[in-house]
Each structure stands twice: as structure tokens, then as C-alpha cells.
Amino acid sequence: MDRIPPGPPETDRPRRNRDADWDAWPVDAYLTENYRSLHPYDIGVIRHHAGVYRRFAPGSLARTLELGAGPNLYPLMLAGAAARRVDALEPSAASVRYLRGQLAHGVDDSWQRFYRLCRSHDPALPASCAEALRRVRVVRGTADDLPPGTYDLASMNFVAESVTEDFEEFTAVCDVFVRAVVPGGRLLAAFMERMPSYRIGTGPVWPACPVDEAALRSVFAPRTTGLRILRLAKDRTLPEYGDTGVLLLTAERPRTPGPGHVPGPS
Ligand SMILES: C[S@@+](CC[C@H](N)C(=O)[O-])C[C@H]1O[C@@H](n2cnc3c(N)ncnc32)[C@H](O)[C@@H]1O
Prior knowledge:
The protein has helices spanning 27-34, 40-53, 74-78, 93-105, 110-121, 129-133, 167-179, 213-220, and strands spanning 64-67, 86-90, 136-140, 151-157, 181-193, 198-199, 205-206, 225-233, 245-252. The chain is α/β, with parallel strands linked by helices. It has one domain (38-252): Rossmann fold (3-Layer(aba) Sandwich).
């Protein structure tokens, strides 16, 4: 009988999204490393995203999405003037617990500085952070649960490239992100540039897929119009995640399928 040749060692296979235990996401350590104080990345992302939200009249977006919200509150704050309802979609039990606690009992003091900065860029935001967050609804789920054509605007921060090592799966997450908005709907995203799989503190390694501007263009150009990508220089105040900067993306879902149209799953 022929011997079955051994498969590649476990570690050679790209780790996919389902291979990580997202319920065990280390919320406290992640907040401590990234969001207990304002870092240059936050300042750049907030300025960029606020510039997009500012173009919408207060209350003019019926429903917006924050995909893979995690425990990060500032993208949710930024939607607080333009959107009448914000769905924070997140699979991790730990992050959902944190988000629901913050919304129910008031946010940690460390978020107030973030809110002041958001409001300085978008004066239409309400005076209080609590009021801005009142339109947020936390929904437990993954990108796979997204119904197409539902949102006026979708936002995604440090998700598609930070949840899988597989470029095809990265592309699939970006694809459902684009399809989640109505035709003509706005897309807003931030990506770690060229970040390999990473650790938070001394915890386990989380799967990531290093992407650069060319990779983002290859995924988003055939699926969107008005694609614009800007770059933030590497933030050396953060732990060393192996990234080379942050890429900021805006685009729209086309109103009619164009020549480079990527057909959806049948
Ligand atoms: C690096 S964190 C980013 C969290 C947050 N957006 C931020 O700005 O800090 C990646 C997030 O994606 C979530 N996630 C993992 N798999 C996902 C999936 N299949 N669909 C949506 N979100 C996912 C994780 O639970 C985690 O909250």
C-alpha cells in the first residue's frame, strides 16, 4: 500500500479566521496598548473619518455599520451626528460585553479625550459622548452575517487584514463590506499597512494578512468608484506590531455595475 505523503506542517498553512478564538480577545490589554490614550494613528484616523461624516447633514444617514467594532468606541462616536442608527457588528463575546457595558453604564473616562477630538472635527456631534452613542446598537455576528444592500455607510477599522492570514479570505471580508451598503453607499476604512500576524501583550498570535496600497487597490478598484487611499506614517508610540503605517480608504459602492464589475455569489 502506498504511503500517504505527510501534509505540510500545521504552521505552514495560512491561519484562517475560524482558527482564532475571537471570544477570548484580550479587551483590557488591547485597550491599554491602543486606546487608553490618544496616539498619532487615532488622531489621523479621526481627522480623516470626521471629514467624511461632516459631508453628511445631521441625521441624514438612516443606518450605518461598524464592522468588527471590537472595543474601540471612537468610530462609533464619529457616526453620532450623521447617522440615526449605528450597528456595531462584532463576533467576540468579550468585546460585545465591553461595548454593551460602556453603552449601558457610561464610557471609561479615557474615551472623553477621543470624543472631544471627534467633536472638534465635527461640531455637529452632540455635546455629550453619551448622546452621540445613543444611536449605537451592538449586534453579535461576523462579516458573513451581513445582509447585502442594507446600510447608507459602512465603516471598518483594522479588521479585514487583522483577522486572517489568507488573502482570499481578506478579499471576501472586503467584498461583503462593500456589498453591505446600498448602491451609491459610502465606504470608510482603515488598515494596518504590511502588518504580519501579531500579539497583544504576551497573549497568543492573532492571524493577519500584510497588505499595502497596491493590494487594497486590487481588491477595491473593481468593486467601487471614487476610490481614495491615504497613508499615515508609522506610529512609534504604539507597541511594535510590525506594520509600516496605516492606510485610510474612502470609496462608494457603484450605483450601476461598471465594466470591472465583480459578480456576487449566486
Ligand atoms: C484588530 S481588531 C479591531 C477592532 C476595532 N475595529 C478597532 O478599531 O480597534 C479586529 C476585530 O475584528 C473582529 N473580527 C474577527 N473576525 C471577524 C469576522 N469574521 N467578522 C467581523 N469581525 C471580526 C475581532 O473580534 C476584533 O474585534
